[in-house]
Design goal:
about 260 residues; alpha/beta; Rossmann fold; seven-stranded parallel β-sheet; 7 strands; disordered N terminus; binds nicotinamide-adenine-dinucleotide
Length: about 260
């Protein structure tokens, strides 16, 4: 049997609950886009394991949404192995992985510390390698799975003062396409979401000048909200809506990149 023709081993989803029965691990779930995706997944009927570095924020979201929570640093290989073990145990398996944890700082290249570069690559790119490597064997054994990597439109077009972040997110896009090809025929679909500027704590730290210039160049003329990104993740995780996407980059980005 060609398992790639079997999107999920579950019964067809109930109307209005497209993720009923799906067991989902979401990183960066304490804030912003990850929190909005967790909320949308909960409303869509998913079973959740939520993770974040911020233990207090994570506990608040888990209490609100009813999922299980496990604090982890997604850049730490040992933390990630323990996270995936715990999530698999709590949920009974992992059908959907959403990689949303991320950091963003602003620095001209000539002034950038190696540690800043390295930590950005670790959290924004290596974490995706670590989590995917840990969940893939279970998904392959099950013959189905969905991986959704939250990249950025800055990985497509670059951003001044953001060479480290742009490089990491471009890496996520390349990784996503390569893994999608590697998983073809094994029932595991791998896609990226590359949001444009979204009003979250992540961008609050950027300079007012950067935010003003950015807003002015957006065809839609405004930053998005996390709630305007989350439905794209629901689509990619769902059956039949997400069944034909793999190796794709979906761009809820106010028109900043037109692919
Ligand atoms: N906000 C935007 O404009 C925007 C645009 C494009 C892409 N993104 C991406 O979306 C994702 C979510 O960003 P957001 O805007 O919601 O930011 P956010 O700061 O609101 O949320 C990021 C979350 O990741 C967590 N986190 C950071 N480092 C971690 C680590 N080492 N281990 C575990 N958790 C960690 C933080 O604690 C936080 O809860 C990021 O990957 C970001 O790069 C954001």
């Amino acid at each position: 049997m060609n398992v790639s023709k079997q999107p999920f081993a579950h019964e067809p989803a109930a109307p209005g609950r497209p993720l009923a029965g799906r067991r989902c691990l979401i990183t960066g779930a304490a804030s912003g886009i990850g929190r909005a995706i967790a909320t949308a997944f909960a409303e869509a009927g998913a079973g959740l394991c939520l993770t974040d570095l911020d233990a207090d924020g994570l506990a608040r979201v888990a209490e609100e949404l009813g999922g299980t929570a496990h604090r982890a640093d997604v850049a730490d290989p040992a933390d990630v192995l323990e996270l995936v073990r715990a999530a698999s145990q709590h949920l009974g398996g992992i059908d959907v992985l959403v990689n949303c944890a991320g950091i963003l700082t602003e620095s001209p290249l000539a002034e950038m510390e190696l540690a800043t570069w390295q930590r950005t690559l670790d959290v924004d790119l290596t974490s995706v390698f670590l989590t995917c490597r840990a969940v893939i064997p279970g998904m392959v054994a099950a013959g189905n799975g969905r991986i959704i990597n939250v990249a950025s439109q800055l990985g497509q077009k670059g951003g001044a003062g953001l060479t480290h972040y742009s490089a990491a997110k471009a890496g996520v896009l390349g990784f996503t396409k390569a893994l999608a090809r590697e998983m073809s025929g094994q029932g595991v679909l791998v896609n990226a979401i590359a949001p444009g500027p979204i009003s979250t704590p992540l961008v609050e730290g950027l300079s007012d000048e950067w935010k003003r210039d950015k807003e002015a160049e957006l065809p839609l003329g405004r930053f998005g909200t996390p709630e305007e990104v989350a439905p794209t993740a629901v689509l990619l995780a769902s059956d039949p809506g997400g069944n034909l996407y793999t190796g794709q980059t979906l761009g809820p980005n106010s028109g900043d990149v037109m692919a």
